[in-house]
Amino acid sequence: MQSQKLFVEVTRNNTVESRHFGAAVVCDYKGTVVESWGDIDQLIFPRSALKPMLAIHLVESGASLHYDLNDAELSLACSSHQGEQIHQDLVESWLKRLGLTVDYLACGAVLPECSERTHQLLASGQQGCRIHHNCSGKHTGFLTSALHLKLPLEGYHALEHPLQKSSLAILSDLAQIDLMQYPMGIDGCGLPAPTMPLIQLGLATARFANPVDLSELRRKAIYRLHKAITNEPLYIAGHGSVVSELNEVTKGSVLAKTGAEGVIIAALPEKGLGVAVKIADGGSRARSVALLAILDHLGALSAKEKQKLHDYITPAITNSRGFAVGEIRAASSWL
Amino acid sequence: MQSQKLFVEVTRNNTVESRHFGAAVVCDYKGTVVESWGDIDQLIFPRSALKPMLAIHLVESGASLHYDLNDAELSLACSSHQGEQIHQDLVESWLKRLGLTVDYLACGAVLPECSERTHQLLASGQQGCRIHHNCSGKHTGFLTSALHLKLPLEGYHALEHPLQKSSLAILSDLAQIDLMQYPMGIDGCGLPAPTMPLIQLGLATARFANPVDLSELRRKAIYRLHKAITNEPLYIAGHGSVVSELNEVTKGSVLAKTGAEGVIIAALPEKGLGVAVKIADGGSRARSVALLAILDHLGALSAKEKQKLHDYITPAITNSRGFAVGEIRAASSWL
Questions:
Q1: Is A123's CB within 8 Å of B119's CB?
Q2: A96 burial class (0-12, 13-18, 19+ CB within 10 angstroms)?
Q3: Best residue in B118, B261, B281, B333 to probe A by mutation, most A CBs within 10 Å?
Q4: In chain B, which residue's Cα lies nearest the Cα of A282?
Q5: Are A29 and A246 within 8 A, CB to CB?
Q6: Scanning A98, A138, A145, A276, which has the fewest C-beta atoms within 10 Å of its C-beta?
Q7: Which member of A6, A109, A185 has the closest CB to residue B325?
Q8: What is the per-residue pLDDT across B203-251, written as a single tens digit (0 to 9) for each?
Q9: C-alpha distances in angstroms, A100 versus A71, A149, B31?
Q10: Dihedral of the alpha carbons of B115, B119, B121, B126, in degrees to the nearest 10
Q11: What gap in Å lies between CA A180 and CA A171, rounded to an integer?
Q12: Residues with Cβ within 8 Å of residue A302, at least 6 apart in sequence
């Protein structure tokens, strides 16, 4: 097997029931590996962890300024949102301002990831639509850029479209590799899903955290996104999500973003560090527990912040009768 | 890390995105390890994989005969059902015949695992109830035994209750260890959740497959359950589930049962073998892919059966736009 480290244990009455393995890297913005666990050269699909970096184009193209996007809209452009009412409302009003409808979104119709909202919708006789897709903010961002740059709206999600080419070029700049030379998949929402070695995701995240070595235009765009995410953390994920909570509690000193299949990153602007985690099995319950353990290890969380984030650091497992029967915790052996 | 083997790969456009590790054992009913992968001495929680064995008590106590339980009800007693209408109807009519109501069930109220049924319920203004819990058939079985044996109904789910003691004694007989000497947790439905080494789960499954070495009463009870599950495979899980499909397609030559957190077993009555699989990370998508690969390796599936089970052997991953973007497959290296 590849070199994977035991990151997270799931217990039942203090006996370990399940184990999550993975790899992780902490890079600084100059490209130095500060710390690593497991095989960081392994090829991974960063998936939605790339969204804040994909939103750079929206700002540096001038589209954001032209359409006067506010912090909430820019945070939503970086988001995997939960499809709550606040997310739905903002995508709807943003699309309306663009003169577009939901039919322009290339992502598929789904029910919201927020189960409470899903239940509300179904109970009121409604179904999920494209706006409820966790990527609809990102897609609305791409449509905004396409309109501003007078590019075709049709096929904006395809690898051959200029928007995707520009976005992949920005990602390549951040990761300092040519992503077109690496395997490419298709994401859940239809967009290209690039791959890169895990170490490159750590580097890209560090350069997003401290973009001092990037062009001025790109640097300014990234600072604009930092501000937007910090000011509107609920729009990058949603209520009760670890990403929104972490970004809110740390007031922007940690900017985290999840990706499907067990990926999570954290940009630490003040430290100029990027953290990238891949849980081998793709389990979402393990990625944030591993990330929070690494952030604690790096001294990136104060005692007060850790107290506020306690339910995410060691989530309890409750059964159908409402009793706590176990917990999810960082394994003791790897830090 | 413990000795875990790479069992299952999840791909995206033919590049591996995620990896599931685990351990598995094939035992015969005499206790010989026929084949194994990974650490089979590791302690695991078999969870719902034990349900068919927990139902032995229902038959050998005479409760099943007294209440004239049919094949569907006995299959349901062994089930992790999906909460479909057929499951709900049968639990309701069974409870009614016992003179009991849903309030006697110790499991908590939940929405069905079958999302179609969940959507139906919510759209018609209903909520999930205790009957929709995947364990409600097992619980109704316990209530049936308690009534027949004139044991208290209250607390029937507690470790101290005579029913649970008898059931754990039966499990101990099958696994040939004293389960009371091993760590014990609480299950999602409130019942005791015993642990055992993985090899013991393989052995217990093999002795369930061919119970010739057990007492006559126990042997007859197990054969009765084989017949019930074989005749009513939809009641042990549900439509579109790998367990029901596998049990149906093989006409009882494979009797499979899942357990939470990545566990799956298969009893092979004709071969007198038991297979037990634990996916380390608890991922449910990997357990059946690993089991089907082992069954194929053992020659337990005909070409025709494999054809019918193709969608479970290598499940496709489709995105929100309905396109196949990847697959879940057994890793090539371990068999």
A1: no
A2: exposed
A3: B281
A4: B18
A5: no
A6: A98
A7: A185
A8: 999 999 999 999 999 999 999 999 999 999 999 999 999 999 999 999 9
A9: 21, 16, 67
A10: 120
A11: 10
A12: none
Of B10, B108, B262, the CB nearest to A18: B262
CB contact under 8 A, B320 and A110: yes
Nearest CA in chain A to B325: A186
Are the beta carbons of B27 and B266 closer than 8 angstroms? no
- Complex ipTM > 0.85: yes
Instruction: Judge contact between B73 and B159, C-beta under 8 A.
Output: no
Give the mutation candidate from A3, A39, A320 for the B interface (greatest B CB count, under 10 A).
Answer: A320
The answer to whether A24 and A290 are in contact (CB under 8 A) is yes
Question: pLDDT in tens for each of the 335 residues of chain A?
Answer: 458 999 999 999 999 999 999 999 999 999 999 999 999 999 999 999 999 999 999 999 999 999 999 999 999 999 999 999 999 999 999 999 999 999 999 999 999 999 999 999 999 999 999 999 999 999 999 999 999 999 999 999 999 999 999 999 999 999 999 999 999 999 999 999 999 999 999 999 999 999 999 999 999 999 999 999 999 999 999 999 999 999 999 999 999 999 999 999 999 999 999 999 999 999 999 999 999 999 999 999 999 999 999 999 999 999 988 899 999 999 987 88
Contacts of B6 in chain A (CB under 8 A): 1
Distances (CA, A) of B293 to B180, B268, B278: 33, 15, 14
Cα separation, B208 vs B219, in Å, equals: 8
Instruction: Count the residues in chain A.
Output: 335
Chain B residues in contact with A110 (beta carbon < 8 A): 320
Q: Nearest to residue B122, comparing CAs of A110, A118, A129?
A: A118
pTM: 0.97
One-letter amino acid at B208 equals F
Across the interface, do B18 and A43 touch by the CB < 8 Å criterion? no
Residue-wise over A44-74: b if at least 16 C-beta within 10 A, else e? bbbbbbbbbbbbbbbbbbebbeebebbbbbb
- From the list A107, A282, A319, the residue facing B188 with the nearest CB is A319
Strand partners, A274: A27, A267
Rounded CA separation B312/A172 (Å): 37
